[in-house]
Automatic annotation (TrEMBL):
Keywords attached to this entry: Chromosome, DNA-binding, Nucleosome core, Nucleus
Localization of this protein: Chromosome; Nucleus
SMART domains tied to this protein: H2A
Ranges where the Core Histone H2A/H2B/H3 domain occurs: 28-105
Subunit description: The nucleosome is a histone octamer containing two molecules each of H2A, H2B, H3 and H4 assembled in one H3-H4 heterotetramer and two H2A-H2B heterodimers. The octamer wraps approximately 147 bp of DNA.
Organism name: Zingiber officinale (Ginger)
Entry-linked InterPro entries: H2A/H2B/H3, Histone-fold, Histone_H2A, Histone_H2A_C, Histone_H2A_CS
Assigned protein family: Belongs to the histone H2A family.
Keyword Secreted in annotation: no
Protein's UniProt name: Histone H2A
Amino acid sequence: MISSTNPGPGYAAVAMAGRGKAIGSAAAKKSTSRSSKAGLQFPVGRIARFLKAGKYAERVGAGAPVYLAAVLEYLAAEVLELAGNAARDNKKSRIVPRHIQLAVRNDEELSKLLGEVTIASGGVMPNIHNLLLPKKAGSSKAPAGDED
């Protein structure tokens, strides 16, 4: 009667994890980021880390960093789209701070959101007061018979 716990020299022992899955097998799942799960470009994990480290609250829910990343990504995309349009209007292929300033200040909602924000090298909005504009010559409505 041969009973041996060692199967022999040509047999590789495989450690088993629960439910018969081998540890380190080829079927191991590759980790996917929370950003890719949510379909976002902004880093959900980094935002979660900042929320926890910032002491904004004692606990941070699982959905909070995903939601915040989505909001930040939307705002960035909105500003970049408008700034790209401003750059194209100025016949430029590169977005500079001036284009971001023009984009933000020409959009009512973004201007309200970023009302107290100063954009470095953004310049000012072009504006000429109505009193400084030249008078139009043919727009006088004087009656024809009142000339002295």
